[in-house]
Amino acid sequence: MGTQEKSTRLSVVRGILLLTFGVFVFRLVQLQLLQSERYRERAEAQAIKRLVVYPPRGTIYDRAGRVIVENAPAFSVVLVPAEFALERAPLLASLIGVDSLWLRQQVSRLRREAPFVPFRVLRDADFRVVAAIEEHRALLPGVSIELETRRLYRGMARLAHVLGYVREVGPQHLQRMGDYYRMGDPIGHAGLEASFEPFLRGEKGYRFVVVDARGQPVAAFRNKRYDVPPREGFDLYLDIDMQLQTVAEHALAGRRGALVALDPQTGGILALVSKPDYEPALLARREVGQYYEELLTDPERPLFNRALQALYPPGSTWKMLVAVAALHDGLITERTELICTGGFTYGGRMYRCHHAHGRVNVVRALQVSCNTFFYQLGLRVGLERMQRYAHLFGFGRVTGIDLPGESAGIVPSREFYDRRYGKKGWSEGGRLVNLGIGQGELGVTPLQMAVYAAALATGVVRQPHVVRAIFNKQLGELQPVAYAERPLPIERSVLEIIRRGMEEAVNAPGGTAQSAQVAGITVCGKTGTAQNPHGRDHAWFIGFAPREHPRIAFAVIVENAGFGGAVAAPIARQLLQAFFFGADRADSLQLRQALAARAN
């Protein structure tokens, strides 16, 4: 090989080396100067994690400003399925007290469905669990402790069917609630927690942290510059009177039934009870799964809100409506008398009354609850007129209360009977005799009956409601909530006749509701006994007080309890004594002792 050839090869090698070096220098300049920001952000994106910060839910207050529900700090054990090592499942399960196989199954499923969505494997963890997790942090990739809040309930009353409860969002919510929610997020179930969820929940915030190779946070990202703070939920101010609610719950304890009390001047709910009920506080704790399953399988159906959802025949409490229709349309007058010999024969069948009352007018018929009078009145009123007046008082339709799941009830029409029995399979006269005393196919809710009692007291049908105002934390102002009302197109003189009959039912000799008398207060009411084909009859009592300027209207029903005057009316008396004279005057030694112990 000649000298010239060697020199040529050396030049080529030098050129290749210089070119290679130039490429490296250019690439280094490109990475360090021209594209440094791009790659730095990409590296940071792989090293930071966005954590959701849940806002405190709004506080709930009663009409006197007493706290009913607030928030308490709580620790949750959170696991990111894609970052968790399955071989560590036995260790984590032993630390938090869950079944290892169950934990592996949950993580395996979530790796397929939502691998990067944090899974709250344990809520409301106690300090022992938190300390154990922190001690073994290096062995538990993808596991962290997050500080959150849980609902804390104040007072002696449960208010279960008013408040509802908070649980993790389910698939049914994700389908209809938009993009706000992700699996594991808390959401209101039932009661106010559900119906006012958009107000109570607030807005989620976000926290960005730098994580190590095991996915564990080690520092805040860029001094928290990009963190988004959460916005607290709005507060609710209710019309509920917690002391009255406590009395009502004690009065119905151990029974099946419902009680609704409201302010007839506004429609605000003062107390609402459905029994049996449940303990909302237990649904806010770590044992929620087991307790919830017990509630679902309980044959007494404690999750069922009887006050809004159960349908009962109104029994003799329906007689005021029949009387209003007959009086207002001129079918009878106050002086019209019908004869009661202990029953009424129609279509070859004897419809019995509980006494032979002789000659009675409408006031006397309400006072003594004469069935015979209202058998005949039902025939005079007729099906279409009865349906029309029922709709005037709100029966057969939802009241519009600000709680979920309300039933509309049943007011039978000609079309209803045709569908059920066929056009030739029913007799209008026989149906009307039964409807005249509130039996048959009628179905009403206790809430509807309380609205009905309030309308008889004031002449106005008002939309019942629990929430009086919302405190808007963004604007810093208390915003009243408006509700509908409509005057009854019924002459005042007609309503005065009805009120007199209800007053005498409680206060006059021979009245069926004398057990509801309250000294110093003119109580107006009406008992009812709703026939039950599956057992003992249900006991009703509805009314209002005082007659001169009504401040409270109510409906009480006790299932399988028999005569309303013997069971439901004394419960109403306890309620009225507490309302007018204080909870310590209620006819309940157990309640008085509980209140005294709480005061001390």
Plain-language structure description:
This protein is α+β, with helices and mostly antiparallel strands. The chain has a domain at 242-466 and 478-599: 3-Layer(aba) Sandwich (Beta-lactamase), CATH 3.40.710. It is built from 22 helices and 23 strands. The strands form 7 sheets. Strands 2, 3, 4, 5, 10, 18 and 19 form a 7-stranded mixed β-sheet that branches. A hairpin with a 7-residue loop joins β21 (524-530) and β22. The longest helix is centred in the N-terminal third of the chain and has 32 residues, at 3-34. It is elongated and about 145 Å long. Mean pLDDT is 88; it is low at 41-45.
Q: How are the secondary structure elements laid out?
A:
Blueprint: H1 3-34, H2 36-47, E1 48-53, E2 60-61, E3 67-79, H3 89-96, H4 100-113, E4 119-125, H5 127-135, E5 143-153, H6 160-163, E6 165-168, H7 171-176, E7 186-189, H8 191-195, H9 197-200, E8 205-211, E9 217-220, E10 235-238, H10 242-251, E11 257-262, E12 269-275, H11 288-297, H12 306-309, H13 319-328, E13 338-340, E14 343-346, E15 349-352, E16 358-360, H14 362-368, H15 371-381, H16 383-392, H17 414-421, H18 428-435, H19 446-458, E17 460-462, E18 467-472, E19 477-480, E20 485-487, H20 492-507, E21 524-530, E22 538-545, E23 552-558, H21 564-581, H22 589-599
Parallel strand pairs: 2-10
Antiparallel strand pairs: 1-8, 2-3, 3-4, 3-5, 6-7, 8-9, 10-18, 11-12, 11-23, 13-16, 14-15, 17-20, 18-19, 21-22, 22-23
Helix pairs in contact: 3-4, 10-21, 13-15, 13-16, 14-20, 15-18
